[in-house]
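Hello Y.,

Per our agreement to keep a running log of every chain we model this quarter, I'm adding this entry. I've kept the format consistent with earlier entries: sequence first, then predicted structure.
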Amino acid sequence: MSSVALLDYLSTPKPVRIFIPLQDGGRMRLDCIAKLIKSPRLEAEFASGQLPVDKIDVSGKCLISYDTGGPTLSLYSTIEQIDGSRKLKLIAVESVSHEQKRQFFRIDAELNARYWLKPATENPPDETIPCRGSNISGGGVLLNLPQELPKLQRIVGMQIYLSEPQPTQVNCTGEIVRVIKKNDGSFDVALRFEKISEDARDKIVAFCFAEQRKQLRFRVRTVSP
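Predicted structure for the entry above:
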C-alpha cells in the first residue's frame, strides 16, 4: 500500500501507532490520534504527559502505522513542528516497504520463551532459562527477566513460542541492546535478533498481525454498546 492510501484514511481522525525518533538513537512507540491537515501534512495528538518533547530527534523520521482491519498501512513522516506538549506537526514523505515493515511493526503480547548463554551441541541444551516476553517484532523481542543481563550480551540460543495464527516455536540468537530496571526489581531486556531464518521471521510477523487483529476485535467488543 502507498502512503497516499494511508493519507486517504486519515482524512478523518484515526487512532494510529507511531514510532518517534529519539536523540539517543532509539525510538519510542506511542498510540495517538492522527489526522490529515492538507496533504502531505498531518497532525498527531497524544495523551497528556506522553510526548517526550525534550528527547525527540526532530531531524529523524516517524513511522506511522494504522490497522484498517485488513491490511496495515504505514508511512514515514518528517517532524515539521513540536506543537506544545501534546501535538506533532508532520509531513508524509514515503511509504514503507515490506522489509521495513517487518522490522518496525511491533505488537504488545505475552510470550513464553527460553534461552541459553553457552554454546551447546544440542538445541536446545539441557540447561535453559525460561523467560517471558511482553512485545515482539520481526527485528527483536522485549523480555522481562528476574536477573540483569549486560548490554551487548549475546544470547547464543533462544526459542520463542507463538500462539497465532497457529501454535509454533521459532529459534534464533540475539544481542542485548537495552536493559531497564523496573520498580519491582526485575529487568526489561530488549533483544535484537541476529541469526534467525526467514521462515522464523515470517512466523513472527504473521503472529504480530494475527495478534493485532485479535486485540482490535477485543477493543471493538469492549466499546460496543
